[in-house]
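@channel sequence for tomorrow's demo:
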Amino acid sequence: MLSQVLEGAARAGVSPGTVAIQLREKDLEARALVELARPLRALTTRFGAALYVNDRADVALAVGADGVHLTGTSLSPSEIAVIAPTLSIAISAHGADDLASAGERAASGAADISFAVLGPIFDTPSKRRYGAPIGLPALAAARAIPFPVLAIGGISVGNVRSCLAAGAAGIACIRALLADEDPEEIAFSISRAILEDAPTH
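structure tokens (generated this afternoon):
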């Protein structure tokens, strides 16, 4: 299924290196995670896409991934930069305060962050227990951040353009792609929307 998603993005004309797959299996032990990550590394390499491993810098290094995605319970970006300086760093943010803090660290040189995902922007079943979505206005903060901010949470073909107009540099999504009968076509449509409406800031 992920190959179909990557096929759709490639068919839309997305440049190699501007698509990333994140491995988010938080409950797997290191060995099982490595075994899952290796074929993903091969797949993303074939399509020129990046591979980020959630939280586990050791696994990311072991499989030759491009980066690690950090959450609120992970090591800090500056700590990752010390122990794994070759990895790109992505972070999760859940509001303007999170973004501002990360932006300040990046601007001061304390952390080199490649991008952040901000959300949930819209309603999504997996996040309902944490409260209401933060909404499109939260993306306005992205315009002042010195690295790309991607909208996440309830993203669909129908709302990609509104995320970009609100301040997002791109989007991240799971359900819209993997729950559809034709993930290649959905990936194509989302990719075209991003390419046609990409922000210039």
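heads up for whoever presents: Strands lie at 20-23, 50-54, 67-70, 88-93, 115-118, 149-152, 170-172.
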